[in-house]
Amino acid sequence: MDEFLRKLFLALLWRSILIGVLVIAIIIVLYLLFPWEHLSSQVSQPSTIYLPLITSNPDPRHGVGLAAIGCEALEKLHIGWYYNWGGDSLNCGAAEFIDMIWGVQDMTTTITSRYILGFCDL
Questions:
Q1: DSSP class of residue 29?
Q2: Count of the separate structural domains present in the chain
Q3: Do 72 and 35 belong to one domain?
Q4: Does 56 have pLDDT greater than 70?
Q5: Does residue 99 form part of some domain?
Q6: Who contacts 110 (Cβ-Cβ below 8 Å, separation ≥6)?
Q7: Higher pLDDT, 86 or 76
Q8: Nearest Cα to 50, choosing from 66, 34, 36, 37?
Q9: 3-state secondary structure 52-118
Q10: Domain match, 71 and 112 both
Q11: Pick from 104, 101, 105: which is nearest to 119 by CA?
Q12: Structural domain that includes position 100
């Protein structure tokens, strides 16, 4: 029985290795036939996508974290609050800006919102 299991294990091992080699060979052939440079030159610039929310009125419970966005785009999101990983508000009134405190260095920053977000990276 032990000899049978050993032969079965070796057969499955070789089959797995051969399948892996075959997959790698197929990937290499596809790359040689269709280089990535040709694909990247055909891709257009990404366009702005707005997330549709359920209500058309801003809900104070809905918020979003975003890095770079304008007031016009913020109004289209129909959210109640937003933050941008820092202390710089857009000052456009579309949604409430929530300050974010990253550490002791931000404790001297003037808090402009009713709430703050903290950052903890353990």
A1: H
A2: 2
A3: no
A4: no
A5: yes
A6: none
A7: 76
A8: 66
A9: CCCCCCCEEEEEEECCCCCHHHHHHHCEEEEECCCCCCCCCCCCEECEEECCHHHCCCCCCCCCEEE
A10: yes
A11: 101
A12: 59-118
Q: How far apart are CA 6 and CA 23, in angstroms?
A: 26
Instruction: Copy the structure tokens of residue 97.
Output: 């800006």
Q: What is the pLDDT of residues 83-110, one digit of tens each?
A: 877 667 777 777 888 887 777 776 766 7
Q: What does DSSP assign to residue 16?
A: H
Residue 83 lies in a domain: yes
For residue 87, the one-letter residue type is G
**Are 20 and 68 contained in the same domain?**
no
pTM: 0.47
Q: Are residues 28 and 74 in the same domain?
A: no
Distances (CA, A) of 100 to 8, 37, 56: 59, 41, 27
Cα-based angle 31, 17, 8 (whole degrees, multiple of 5): 155
> Is residue 86 one of the residues assigned to a domain?
yes
